[in-house]
Structures are given as C-alpha cells and as structure tokens.
Amino acid sequence: MNKINTNINAVGSIPEYDMIYYVLQLLAKDTDSGQLYEKLVLNNKFGIRTEQSRARFLRAIQSAFWEFKNKDHEILISTLFKARNLEDTKRYALFWSMGINNLLFEKITNHVFFKAYFSGRVQIANHDITAYLRHERESSEVIKKWSDTTLTALASKYLTFLKKIDFVKGRLKREFRYIQLDNISLVFLVYLIKAIEPGNSNIMESRYFNFFFTEKSSMVNIMKKAVFSEFFEIQTDALGIKIDLKFNCGEIVNVISGRI
C-alpha cells in the first residue's frame, strides 16, 4: 500500500544520482539483494562515507523506483533501464516513478509543483511546499507527528530531487525549466499509464495525466500527430481520448529504442 512517509528525504540526499541509474540497471538484470548490497554498501562503489548511509540510500532507491502496480508496470520499467539509450526517458521515469510509488511526493507534485508550473509562475520555493505540508498536517494523522524541521527538510529535499533531474534550476531560488516531453518519452508514458491503470479507458481522466506536462485542451492535437500512429490508435470524443496500444509492454521499449 502506498503510504505517507519521508522517503523523499533519503532520495533527495543521495549525493550522486549515477547511483540511482546504476542500481536500477542492476535490478533490471535481476541482480539479487546480496549482490546489490555487496556492490553498493560493502564495496562502496560511489564513495559514500558511512555504511549506514549507503544502506539507507539503497533502500530508498528500491522503495521509490522499484515497486510496481502489476507485472506490466514491472516489465516496462525493467526493459527501460536495460536499454542502452533513452536517457531522457529514464530521467523522466525517475519523476514518474516517485509520483506513482510515493504518495507524499504525488501530493506535493499535484498540489504545489504542477499548480505553480501550469499557472505560469517562474519559480517554486521551499515555503510553497512547507505551507502545503502544514495545511496537510491539520488532517493527516501521519504528518501531524512531524516537526516543522521535518517539513522544512522534506521541502528542501523535494526541490533538490527536481534539480538533480533537471526540472528546476538555481541554488537559492528554484526556477522552473520548460519541460516538453520528446515523442519517445510521450509514447513510453502512454504505455506506462495504460499499464498502471488498466481499467481506465480515457487517458484524459488518468490520475497521472499531468505527467504529460501539457494542458488537456492541447492533448488531442498532440496525440493526433502522425508520428504516434505507429505505436497506438486513438479515438476522441467529447469526453476524452481512448487509446488502443499496438505493442505489448515487453515490446515497446525495444521498438522506441530503435527509433532514435
């Protein structure tokens, strides 16, 4: 079950994000937990000072990026991180996976990040997030137990994560970067959403629609582009967009990987 927790702190504290990609590549190759622990914790491949921190970061990576709603979800993420290319899609997938697997990250992203981004604001600040968390603390039995120091740390690490995946820039003031998914990443996201929401036929009503970084009013025209007809068929009506996939989740990464 996706519960409220402070895993954002651990992910945001990882000093070298190559560690995340390295761990996900190993997991995609079915590396067992003992080998992972040996490579990352005992052998200290990334030079992280304490064994306790190394173990904490490994747990955080697995929790944030290697939990799945179903087998198709697992197949998609696994084949993505086995691919030799698709670097932008992998970077976006870190954001998407955090939003899918971490309920607090999803809440902050929807109620603070996307709200500011789509309103046309230039910046997002720590106090935007802490204000939201303080409001949530009034009704959440979990967040109610957290101190102001914890809330401030969560806000800071959330923005640190966004900076490390190149969604924001700046040191003191976090400025939004303009985010427009490339065609390959958009195709992957369509397959991802269809995998994790198999009962939802209308992608416009997806819980994760904002992951496309576009307004609903623009989505129909985007999806009608001829370039996408190879990967799925769409039907549009007044209610939204219905999509029929042309490949299964085990095939699509190899297909799009060959289009670069």
In brief:
This protein is mostly helical. It is built from twelve helices and five strands. Among the domains are: 75 residues; 75 residues.
Report the sheet with the most strands, covering strand number, pairing sense and barrel closure. Answer: 3 strands, antiparallel
- Strands, count: 5
- Oligomeric organization of the protein chains: single chain
Strand order of the largest sheet: 1-3-2
How would you spell out the order of helices and strands? HHHHHHHEHHEEHHEEH
Structural class: mainly alpha
Classify the helix fraction into a percent range: 55-70%
Question: Mean pLDDT, rounded to whole units?
Answer: 96
- N-to-C CA distance: 37 Å
Please give the count of helices.
12
Q: What Rg do the Cα atoms give?
A: 19 Å
Could you say which overall geometry the principal axes of the C-alpha atoms support? globular
Poorly predicted runs = none
Query: Approximately how much beta-strand content do the residues carry?
Result: 5-15%
Protein name: DUF1819
